[in-house]
């Protein structure tokens, strides 16, 4: 039997597994689907036999039967940005757990590239789309929605009333972080703001301004984009204003600030305090470990996927909001 398997060139079918195990095709099908109606021992035996025979499910045939592709489209601006890489990974893992595949597109935050991605997803008849939207893409999702393809916006709010959003609330994490910075004597804070043509950039700056007024602390703002170079240039500009604490508006701005500190030979938590944004592994292992505002990216991705495949009618009126949390480490305290 082993020799025959080695020579086999045609794909293994359910009938082949049935012949090998002496069970019916329907029992094989249900066992591979983990149907609890099939005894656990039988399921394990069938699944091991299928693995030994190198069985691969015929997803195309299954899609034709169910009229579903079991594929979702995911569009993010920049996979080199640690946050968006983590977001795409979180969505992919959530999809994999539900036996869905992911078609990933990188848009470079370009509305035309996002439009092309949406058209490609629709052309492949994906079961749904999870996208990081662009501010200028107002009618972009009208066609897929008319064709019955659901769309969910993640990280940024959608400006379409028919597209729901899953976003983070920057206030809890930023407030806790600013309060931690204020425990230092003679603290002077600067904020590296990201693009105001994104809902995330506007909301984070608004929260910074509100918290500055509420907590009676002056916060100098450098207005830039979500880019490491702007993080570097913004930090150099704020240092010229004699700030001794920097709050970064995202992970790339955080890395830009760290680059400037290194160039200026400023030791974090000795001569300068830093509150980073996004819980990136390298920030945890930095010496000293960086305090960060965590958007809970895993939850963002999971919630976006679950909303996409859920049975509730999708609406943009009431976004799902995930609170940020502070990971309070050494970088916010001057010794």
From TrEMBL:
CDD domains listed in its UniProt record: HTH_LacI
Keywords from the named record: DNA-binding, Transcription, Transcription regulation
Gene Ontology molecular-function annotations: DNA-binding transcription activator activity; sigma factor activity; transcription cis-regulatory region binding
Stored InterPro entries: HTH_LacI, Lambda_DNA-bd_dom_sf, Peripla_BP/Lac1_sug-bd_dom, Peripla_BP_I, RNA_pol_sigma_54
One Pfam family it belongs to: LacI
The HTH lacI-type domain, residue ranges: 12-66
Highest rank taxon of the organism: Bacteria
PANTHER family, per database record: HTH-TYPE TRANSCRIPTIONAL REGULATOR GALS, LACI-RELATED TRANSCRIPTIONAL REPRESSOR
Protein name from the UniProt record: HTH-type transcriptional regulator DegA
Organism of origin: Corynebacterium gerontici
Gene from which the chain derives: degA
């Amino acid at each position: 039997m082993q020799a025959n398997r080695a020579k086999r060139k045609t794909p293994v079918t359910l009938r082949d597994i049935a012949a090998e195990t002496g069970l019916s095709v329907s029992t094989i099908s249900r066992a591979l689907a983990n149907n609890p109606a099939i005894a656990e021992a039988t399921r394990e035996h069938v699944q091991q036999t299928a693995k030994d025979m190198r069985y691969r499910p015929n997803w195309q045939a299954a899609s034709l039967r169910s009229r579903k592709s079991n594929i979702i489209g995911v569009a993010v601006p920049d996979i080199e940005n640690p946050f968006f890489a983590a977001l795409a990974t979180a969505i992919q893992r959530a999809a994999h757990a539900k036996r869905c595949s992911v078609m990933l597109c990188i848009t470079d935050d370009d509305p035309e590239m996002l439009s092309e991605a949406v058209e490609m997803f629709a052309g492949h008849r994906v079961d749904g789309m999870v996208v990081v939207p662009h501010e200028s893409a107002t009618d972009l999702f009208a066609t897929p929605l008319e064709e019955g393809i659901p769309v969910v916006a993640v990280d940024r709010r959608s400006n379409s009333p028919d597209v729901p959003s899953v976003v983070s609330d920057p206030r809890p994490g930023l407030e806790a972080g600013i309060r931690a910075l204020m425990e230092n004597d003679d603290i002077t804070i600067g904020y590296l703001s990201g693009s105001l043509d994104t809902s995330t950039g506007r909301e984070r700056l608004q929260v910074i301004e509100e918290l500055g007024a509420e907590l009676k602390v002056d916060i100098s703002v450098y207005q830039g984009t979500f880019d490491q170079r702007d993080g570097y240039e913004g930090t150099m500009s704020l240092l010229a204003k004699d700030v001794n604490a920097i709050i970064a508006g995202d992970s790339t701005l955080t890395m830009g600030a760290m680059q400037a500190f290194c160039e200026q030979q400023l030791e974090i938590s000795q001569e300068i305090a830093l509150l980073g944004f996004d819980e990136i592994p390298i920030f945890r292992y930095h010496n000293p470990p960086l305090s960060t505002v965590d958007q809970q990216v895993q939850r963002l991705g999971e919630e976006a996927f679950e909303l996409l495949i859920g049975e509730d009618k999708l609406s943009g009126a009431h976004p799902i909001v995930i609170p940020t949390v502070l990971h309070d480490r050494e970088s916010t305290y001057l010794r």
